[in-house]
């Protein structure tokens, strides 16, 4: 690994980014444009029907966002001109050959010019349709790899995965690759081509029966969960990402490959400013539900370590790692970017921060009333959770429904509200259940080595900080992350 100035490495580079309007991708693009305006070209691939629609989508979903405010302040009315000079917005699709790029001249140009490919395009829904997740997370990665093999100047391919390809493993989870057909529960017979055939045959049968689109979607979601759990993964998302990693490692040939596995990604820590977030991401569902008064109990281990990492640190690790492994022909390295080893935070601390924040800054509901929050009852077993739900919610709901029927729907509003509370909690348990008692700790030895060597080499680590030890979690959650999430919800 040869480490030089990151800013110098980025100068005059041509970088292809897939999934360019995604959360991480936008932070990555903004960072490059802000810290190294002498980057030669960013080829930004996103889904759109044509060039005009692609440009409009990028402007609406990226440039117009508050994320780009520092660039707007710097360039003012010239920002759009600067972006046109530095970025080529491309309608495309990683589930297609040549990434779905229709213009053959542009394809040839990228094959000649691209130095670095950053594959961020993915679906992150835990219960995504199996056909959609396979196309994007598994086989999409291979279309990106095939494209990379045709790029004559390519120095490195960076693929963003997830640390949770580990499933429900306990203990220290190492930064090691998955071999083809490897499973988490020891069940033999995982064959990725067979998975594709099972998916295609199921889809064909559903269509032949004249199933509605809603029925097909439901069936394909169930199929994904069934196939994932057969081999030990808890959901479709991490299963299809794991298979994508397998294929990349097996088929990369002499392509220098970096696989980055972030843990739970939260709002920005420092850049372009603290607290920028988009979407309600994983633990944010709990914060919002709690602040709104919908979450009064939850299931999980109070002592469990919750591995979170701010988005800008993930992006900084991406940039430093792609520089560090440029031109290492045939190499493969995995970086787990998280905090559970070097700066762990537990569930109880998060609960405490949420309680304190929403007591100091209570949520105002749509009726203008202040929501008063109390301490959440944490249930440490599934049996205790079911007993709690039956006693505190299901039984009162049954009584209320009987009274409501007797009194000609007088309590219909209260019935609906209680239904919503129950459905909200049950949905969270269904989606995140496998992680509520998660006992894994994500080893980041490779990432720590990269940090240490970069610092020793004099890399601009003040610009590209990805050290979780620099985070004070109490200050971050109380003054940066939760306010950022609340701001996003109210925008």
Automatic annotation (TrEMBL):
Residue stretches making up the Fatty acyl-CoA reductase C-terminal domain: 393-491
Domain Thioester reductase (TE) residue range list: 17-318
State the Gene Ontology terms under molecular function.
alcohol-forming long-chain fatty acyl-CoA reductase activity; alcohol-forming very long-chain fatty acyl-CoA reductase activity
Which segments of the protein form a coiled coil according to its record?
none
Describe the reaction catalysed, as an equation: a long-chain fatty acyl-CoA + 2 NADPH + 2 H(+) = a long-chain primary fatty alcohol + 2 NADP(+) + CoA
Q: Which UniProt keywords apply?
A: Lipid biosynthesis, Lipid metabolism, NADP, Oxidoreductase
Query: By what name is this protein known?
Result: Fatty acyl-CoA reductase
One Pfam entry for this protein is NAD_binding_4
Q: What family is reported?
A: Belongs to the fatty acyl-CoA reductase family.
- Species of origin reads Nicotiana attenuata
Q: Enzyme class, one word?
A: oxidoreductase
**Keyword Cell cycle, does the record have it?**
no
Gene Ontology biological-process annotations? long-chain fatty-acyl-CoA metabolic process; suberin biosynthetic process
| Source species taxonomy | Eukaryota, Viridiplantae, Streptophyta, Embryophyta, Tracheophyta
Q: What is its EC number?
A: 1.2.1.84
Q: What does this protein do?
A: Catalyzes the reduction of fatty acyl-CoA to fatty alcohols.
Q: Which gene encodes it?
A: FAR3_0
Nucleotidyltransferase as UniProt keyword = no
Organism domain of life: Eukaryota
Q: Which SUPFAM superfamilies match?
A: NAD(P)-binding Rossmann-fold domains
């Amino acid at each position: 690994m040869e480490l030089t100035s990151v800013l110098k490495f980025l100068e005059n580079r041509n970088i292809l980014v897939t999934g360019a309007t995604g959360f991480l991708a936008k932070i990555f693009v903004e960072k490059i444009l802000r810290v190294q305006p002498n980057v030669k070209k960013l080829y930004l691939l996103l889904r759109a029907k044509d060039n005009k629609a692609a440009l409009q989508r990028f402007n609406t979903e990226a440039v117009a966002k508050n994320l780009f405010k520092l660039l707007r302040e710097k360039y003012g009315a010239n920002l759009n001109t600067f972006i046109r000079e530095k970025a080529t917005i491309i309608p495309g699709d990683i589930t297609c050959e040549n990434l779905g790029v229709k213009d053959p001249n542009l394809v040839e140009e990228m094959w000649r010019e691209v130095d670095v490919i950053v594959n961020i395009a993915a679906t992150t829904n835990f219960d995504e349709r199996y056909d959609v997740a396979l196309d994007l997370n598994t086989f999409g990665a291979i279309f990106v790899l095939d494209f990379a093999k045709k790029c004559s100047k390519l120095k490195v391919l960076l693929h963003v995965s997830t640390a949770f390809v580990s499933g429900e493993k306990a203990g220290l989870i190492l930064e090691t690759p998955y071999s083809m057909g490897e499973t988490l529960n020891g069940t033999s017979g995982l064959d990725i081509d067979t998975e594709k055939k099972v998916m295609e045959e199921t889809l064909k049968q559903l269509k032949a029966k004249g199933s509605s689109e809603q029925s097909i979607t439901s069936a394909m979601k169930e199929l994904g969960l069934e196939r994932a759990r057969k081999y030990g993964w808890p959901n479709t998302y991490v299963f299809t990402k794991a298979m994508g990693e397998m294929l990349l490692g097996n088929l990369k040939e002499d392509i220098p490959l970096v696989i980055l596995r972030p843990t739970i990604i939260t709002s920005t820590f420092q850049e372009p400013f603290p607290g920028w977030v988009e979407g309600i991401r994983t633990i944010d569902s709990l914060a919002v539900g709690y602040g709104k008064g919908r979450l009064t109990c939850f299931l999980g281990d109070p002592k469990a370590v919750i591995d979170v990492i701010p988005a800008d640190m993930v992006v900084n690790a991406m940039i430093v790692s792609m520089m560090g492994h440029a031109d290492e022909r045939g190499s493969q390295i995995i970086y787990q970017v998280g905090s559970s080893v070097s700066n762990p935070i537990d569930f109880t601390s998060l609960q405490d921060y949420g309680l304190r924040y929403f007591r100091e800054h209570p949520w105002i509901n749509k009726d203008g009333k202040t929501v008063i929050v109390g301490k959440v009852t944490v249930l440490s077993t599934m049996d205790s959770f079911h007993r709690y739900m039956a006693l505190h919610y299901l039984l009162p709901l049954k009584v209320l429904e009987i009274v409501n029927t007797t009194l000609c729907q007088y309590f219909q509003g209260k019935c609906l509200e209680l239904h919503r509370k129950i459905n909200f909690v049950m949905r969270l348990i269904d989606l995140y259940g496998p992680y509520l008692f998660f006992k894994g700790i994500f080893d980041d030895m490779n990432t720590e080595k990269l940090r240490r060597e970069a610092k020793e080499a004099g890399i601009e680590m003040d610009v590209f900080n990805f050290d979780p030890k620099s985070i004070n979690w109490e200050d971050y959650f109380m003054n940066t992350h939760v306010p950022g999430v609340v701001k996003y919800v109210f925008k």
